[in-house]
Task: inverse folding
């Protein structure tokens, strides 16, 4: 039996989302506020100035300062204030949790075959703050490749392979997308890391991770193991859906619940 989950939300709530994420949406005028933000694992709530977004309680945000790069949750919004700007850090980004569409159950992950439901750029806002103007990136490739059904071709050490298997079993691969032959994944490690690759007829090439390792890493191993499992499940239960779109995006189920359901005050879920 194919199990499906559908998310439906009231349109009235969508106006509070970050207008910069989807240019097709109606622009929302930011409302100045001082917000209290709580960071997981810390009992304190810190105050930040906001002049870019129309924030509400429950929104997930990135901020400047000591907690830069750490996602926090807005727990209070104050519109009546007078502050000295030099004493306050700002809210710099809001996670795009505007997810509505159909998902299929695939083990510990939920899978969608609709490109509009949870594309890479939306999922990335859950884990990564905006890039700074001073950030510079370079990439390269040695044109090596291997087959997905034989990971010995990755030429990783036994230690790295074991650690990658641990990451896979711990469901550290939070998001994985395959669009045609282009693959992208987010792995939760010391920090979230982005893994990219090409998959063509079972052959993997261009496998890279933005962690600090100068060799094939545990994050890449975990992604390949997760890709194996998801493709096996999809080919078994959802072949028609996958072939019709040549696309899937999978998200770890607890992450979907946290980022989507916990930020909403109204709406419905259909199983």
Result:
């Amino acid at each position: 039996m194919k199990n499906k989950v559908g998310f439906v939300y009231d349109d009235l709530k969508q106006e509070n989302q970050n207008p910069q994420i989807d240019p097709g949406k109606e622009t929302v005028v930011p409302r100045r506020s001082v917000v209290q933000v709580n960071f997981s694992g810390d009992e304190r709530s810190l105050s930040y100035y906001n002049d870019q977004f129309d924030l509400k309680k429950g929104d997930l945000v990135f901020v400047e300062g000591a907690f830069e790069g750490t996602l926090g949750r807005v727990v209070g919004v104050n519109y009546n204030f007078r502050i000295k700007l030099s004493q306050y850090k700002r809210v710099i980004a809001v996670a795009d949790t505007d997810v509505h569409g159909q998902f299929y159950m695939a083990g510990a992950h939920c899978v969608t075959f609709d490109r509009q439901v949870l594309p890479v750029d939306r999922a990335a806002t859950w884990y990564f703050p905006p890039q700074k103007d001073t950030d510079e990136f370079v990439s390269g490739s040695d044109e090596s490749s291997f087959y997905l059904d034989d990971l010995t071709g990755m030429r990783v050490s036994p230690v790295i392979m074991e650690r990658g298997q641990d990451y896979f079993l711990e469901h550290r691969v939070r998001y994985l997308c395959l669009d045609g032959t282009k693959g992208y994944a987010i792995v939760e490690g010391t920090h979230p890391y982005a893994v990219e690759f090409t998959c063509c007829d079972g052959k993997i090439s261009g496998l890279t991770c933005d962690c600090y390792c100068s060799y094939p890493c545990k994050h890449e191993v975990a992604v390949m193991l997760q890709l194996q499992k998801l493709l096996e499940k999809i080919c078994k239960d959802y072949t028609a859906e996958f072939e019709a779109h040549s696309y899937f995006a999978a998200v770890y189920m607890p992450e979907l619940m946290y980022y989507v359901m916990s930020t909403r005050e109204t709406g419905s879920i259909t199983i």
The longest helix spans residues 218-237. DSSP finds five helices and 15 strands in the chain.
